[in-house]
Amino acid sequence: MRQAGVRTLVLLGWLWLLAGRVAAAEYRPLPPAPRAGLTSDWLIFDAPRNRLILFLPDYHTPARAYYQWISFRPSQALPISFPARKDLSLFLDNRLVFTATSTASYSLDLSRLIPPGTPPGPHLLCVWHPEVPPAISSFSNAAGATAAKPGVVAGSPLQVMPRVRGHQGQNVFVCFLLIIGLLYGGIRIAYQPGFARIYQLERLWSNSPDDQDFLTKPTITWLNLLLVLVFSLSLALLLVAIHTNIQSIVILRRLFDVPESAIVVRILFYAALVATFILGKYLFLELMGYIFDVTPLVIVQYREFVRTILFMGLFLPAVMVLYLGLNQKLPETVLWISNGVVSFMLIATVVRTARTLQRRTSLLNLHLFSYLCATEVIPLVILLKVVVFTF
């Protein structure tokens, strides 16, 4: 009986150990899957605690350096693409591996920037700019990367070549440009008298009775609505081409998260924003006219604004043709010309509107001058900041 009891205890002990091993094997946590490529989880440096913390756009203030852990495996490519301002730099494990020599879009393989012989595992990627916060929302994983060429030292920044600006969406730009040309031609044939009243250079700064007659005609007509649509599409096409990142505005990014690679969607989205701004300015002018008690000037001011901006928009397709023809050879020059044309268009619209109001009533009156600043000058400064100086 005693031996039977000992055997029973030994058997129970073996069963207990076997059950523990099975339970341990069943509930053992799996190792975390390696993170391949970039994610939307960026880190910033918390100086008081001396550690990296998760960056929350709605909570933390923008920083000039953002971090992210990436996983590296032998013979595994890590291609990424991003638009970069001049002097933007990338660091891997606190080692400088890339610096943008000009404002352009870039594609590179992070695995080729890691020194040979580096063991696989996590590596710390840092995106830094000396002056402004980097646009980390524009960093994305590319579809693939080119294989390393024989004789090229891996990790050398010289092998990172800038991607031609606009090359990715060149066919899309050409198609939209053809659509804009067809729309202008069709509108000119269908509404020839009204089209001529707007797009005649000698009438833009004249004081003829025909010129003043335009300010008494209805503003919301099919002709004007169609021209506003074409103008919005032209300006949106140019904004996407010169990589003006309007979605860096927090409110727009939260309401409409349009990916950087969706060129057609971004063009249509920017066109909708421009058209909404033009048509919605009338409500803004009515409100400001009521506040400043200058309601009789509102309709004249808005009609002059619409006429001038539509006339200036006729030059946007020409700038787009210049962009498609010279962007590969002179990207910086084309960028300056594009921004210059957009700036001139906005400033000339304000000057023309102020000149028209000056003929109706003296702007030397401090009250009217304050109204003009509130309705034209301050919006002009905001538009220049958002549209021209964003990128």
Describe this protein's structure.
The chain has 391 residues and is α+β, with helices and mostly antiparallel strands. The chain has two domains: 121 residues, no CATH class; 219 residues, no CATH class. 50% of the residues lie in helices and 13% in strands. It contains eleven helices and ten strands. A four-stranded antiparallel beta sheet has the order 3-8-5-6, with no helix packed on it. Strands 9-4-7-10 form a four-stranded antiparallel beta sheet, with no helix packed on it. It has a two-stranded antiparallel sheet with strand order 1-2. A hairpin with a 4-residue loop joins strand 1 and strand 2. The radius of gyration is 30 Å and the shape is elongated. About 9% of the residues have low confidence.
Structure in a nutshell:
With 391 residues, this protein is an alpha+beta fold. The chain is 50% helix and 13% strand.
Write the layout of secondary structure elements.
Blueprint lengths: L1 H26 L15 E4 L4 E4 L10 E8 L6 E6 L4 E4 L2 E5 L4 E6 L11 E8 L11 E2 L20 E2 L6 H21 L1 H7 L10 H6 L7 H20 L8 H6 L7 H30 L5 H15 L3 H11 L4 H30 L5 H23 L3
Antiparallel strand pairs: 1-2, 3-8, 4-7, 4-9, 5-6, 5-8, 7-10
Helix pairs in contact: 2-3, 2-5, 2-9, 5-7, 5-9, 7-8, 7-11, 8-10, 9-10, 10-11
